[in-house]
Amino acid sequence: MIRTSLFKEYGGYCEELHRAQDYEFFSRIIQQGIALTNLPEVLVFYRQSNFIQNFQYFKENAIYTDYANYRLSGGTKSFNEFNRRIVSKLRQNYLILNYWRFFLIMKVKKLKLYRAFYTNMS
Q1: How many beta carbons lie within 10 A of that of residue 119, not counting itself?
Q2: What is the end-to-end Cα distance of the chain in Å, rounded?
Q3: How does pLDDT run along the chain (122 residues), one tens digit per residue?
Q4: Radius of gyration of the chain (CA)
Q5: Kind and range of the H or E element at 98?
Q6: 53 lies in which domain range?
Q7: What was the pLDDT predicted at 48?
Q8: CA nearest neighbour of 103 among 69, 61, 54
Q9: 3-state SS assignment for residue 29
Q10: What is the SS3 assignment for 49?
């Protein structure tokens, strides 16, 4: 949950990103010194299927996350200009592996949250 005024003040989501919009936005406001916290109560229960997306999905997420990091470090190129530089297979594979790492870490954290949630419900 985020206040509308904060969202408007910092420009909202980067419209050039088709994925990783929330990652880029929250990273940007954290860089500005805004403190974030988790609310202790569950506001929404969002369920995802256990279906693992295809390889193209992970490849695209990796590229958009890399672009978000580029923008956060002061980069000014458009996504299309930025994406042209990703020509080497080695670079693409690095991005994909790095994103898989992030994805797996988030899955582990999510599992811990579910366990804590269901333990507290009992």
Answers
A1: 8
A2: 26
A3: 788 898 899 999 988 888 888 889 988 999 999 888 877 787 777 666 555 567 677 777 888 888 899 989 998 888 888 877 766 666 777 778 888 888 888 888 877 777 776 676 65
A4: 17
A5: helix 89-121
A6: 4-121
A7: 60
A8: 61
A9: helix
A10: coil
Q: Rounded to the nearest 10 degrees, how much is the dihedral formed by the CA atoms of 116, 117, 119, 120? A: 110
The one-letter amino acid code at 32 reads Q
In DSSP notation, 64-97 reads: HHHHHHHHHTT----HHHHHHT---HHHHHHHHH
Count of structural domains, the chain: 1
HSE toward the beta carbon, residue 3, CA cutoff 13 A: 9
Nearest 5°: the CA angle 55, 58, 60 is 110
3-state class (DSSP) for residue 62 = helix
pLDDT attached to residue 77 = 87
Q: What does pTM read for this prediction?
A: 0.57
